[in-house]
Design goal:
five-stranded antiparallel β-sheet; 5 helices; elongated
Length: about 170
């Protein structure tokens, strides 16, 4: 009686195992593949800054703020001093004195304001339909712009940012 070993003979078990491995690999590829938003669906702000050297621009579609709110956001991070100076000028970020600058570095404070969508330099007192929430971190040289469509969204974002200031995540 001449028998071939189990592994040398194609069996349905090997085919099933190969199929299972392909399914697992395919599922992992789909889950882990980076998702990108087409440029024409990104904010005008992102489109303006994404190709400028010294600025890392990110557009986050449907950023989850809490259980009830998802919102689009643009994050601009300056990687050079000249890019940070340009962002500060473009957004009208007030300059700090040397003493305040040192204090700001120790506290890692942020400033935020509500601005019209077409002019992020301006600050408005009351919320409007066409307004964004601008959040500036001088410590990380980052400007985040939350693109809102309703006053209630600004209220939730404002409350969320103030809560995070009072209760940082790295605090136990």
């Amino acid at each position: 009686m001449n028998r071939t070993p189990f592994l040398h003979k194609p069996t349905p078990w090997l085919l099933v195992l190969a199929l299972c491995l392909l399914i697992v690999a395919g599922t992992l590829c789909i889950k882990l593949w980076p998702r990108t938003t087409p440029l024409d669906q990104c904010s005008v702000l992102y489109q303006k800054y994404f190709s400028i050297p010294g600025i890392k621009a990110s557009f986050v579609k449907d950023y989850r703020v809490n259980d009830t709110l998802s919102i689009d956001a643009t994050v601009l991070e300056a990687t050079t001093d000249s890019a940070w100076a340009m962002l500060q000028n473009d957004f009208g970020v007030p300059k700090l004195s040397e003493a305040n600058n040192e204090l700001n570095d120790k506290l890692n404070s942020i400033c935020l304001w509500i601005a019209p969508k077409n002019n992020h330099k301006s600050v408005i007192d009351s919320t409007m339909y066409d307004s964004d929430l601008v959040v500036v971190s001088r410590h990380t040289h980052t400007i985040s712009v939350f693109h809102t469509t309703a006053e209630s969204q600004i209220d939730i974002l404002w409350t969320n940012n103030v809560h995070e200031l009072k209760h940082p995540k790295n605090e136990n």
